[in-house]
Amino acid sequence: MVLLIGGQVWQPRNAEAQSSQAPVQDTVKAKRIEVVDDAGKSRIVLATLADKGPTLALYDENEKQRAMLAVPTDGTPGLGLFDGNAKGRLGLGLNPDGSPGLTLADQDGKAGAMLSVLPDGTTSLSLYDSNNKERTRLAVHPDGAPELALLDENGNTIWEKP
User: Fold this and answer.
1) Does 84 map to a domain?
2) For residue 21, what pLDDT is reported?
3) Which one of 11, 61, 87, 102 is at 20 to 30 Å from 116 when CA atoms are compared?
């Protein structure tokens, strides 16, 4: 394993060689730390990005991003998982109000299902069509009342219970 830190290459030789080297520092400061494999391919990048804040990205052997953990400047942490074509397929995060959400996406990266707990305590499952429009909503409200709604392509309710 090779580390690129501040433009410098660091590669441990073995435990004995490391123990005879200078003492380990308690803190490493850098805007970007990149871990590469034996072939020199990026596999892990830890960075602070202007638009995404602190970010940890994991890459596969083809250097395609497969996972990202980030805390954007708005303070809403999120985890994204990507398929082999770098399409976002699963997203887990918190909204600005602190409510959690889980999104499952299709092969084009469009939302297929979203599970969330709303600020008022309502638990909701929404299903989306191929045009990324919500078409079905199942919810349980804080008072225990269930809700099932079917929506048309414009988001208008066409059937609802209760």
Assistant:
1) no
2) 74
3) 87
Tokens found for residue 8: 């410098």
Which of 100, 108, 90, 94 shows the shortest CA–CA distance to 124?
100
Pull the structure tokens for residue 53. Answer: 């804040």
Q: Are both 46 and 102 inside the same structural domain?
A: no
| Amino acid 16: pLDDT | 52
| Pick from 65, 70, 121: nearest CA to 89 | 65
Cα 12 from Cα 1, distance rounded (Å):
8
66 and 4 housed in the same domain: yes
Nearest to 63 by CA among 47, 89, 40: 40
Distance from the Cα of residue 70 to its chain's centroid? 7
How far does Cα 103 stand from its chain's mean position? 10
Q: State pTM to two decimals.
A: 0.79
Instruction: Say if 17 falls within a structural domain.
Output: yes
Residue 36 structural domain: 1-73
Q: Are 135 and 123 a contacting pair, CB within 8 Å? A: no
Nearest by Cα to 149 from 140, 138, 141, 134:
138
